[in-house]
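Revision sheet: structure tokens.
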Amino acid sequence: MDNRIDKQIGNLVDALMGPIIVFSGGWGDSLPDWIKGAIQIERLAQLMKGEETATDTEACAYLYTASLTNPIDRDWVQVYLHVASKVVSRNKDTQIPEDIKVDSLDDYQMGLLRDLKQWIWDRRAKVRQERRRLGKAQAKVEAEARAPKQLGLPV
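Predicted:
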């Protein structure tokens, strides 16, 4: 039972404080604050549903940074506009123009989106494990630094 509770607590902490996975290239800092907040809210909703996949907003954030780094092909543009249409429609302060709004994707594009969301979820888990490992290593170093040194005196 403790393992299940630990996992639930870990998932909750990750939903609120976990990393936002962005495309490497330096554009991660340009994410609007409202997207960061929306990611946390959607992660909590996903957690309550028991779904282990990234959210639409996380996919949108990743594709936003990817599109600023490199040109993306037609299918990825459709996927990006689809998730952006969904994400932006939830934010009352912004609207997506009707001429670029994408309400549905074909099967291939839905597969791309599913794969991207799973990859983001897996990447987040990997980052969380790496942070945990580094935290344990740091704690060990700090504990050794605080431990009294043996000076060669008889005990």
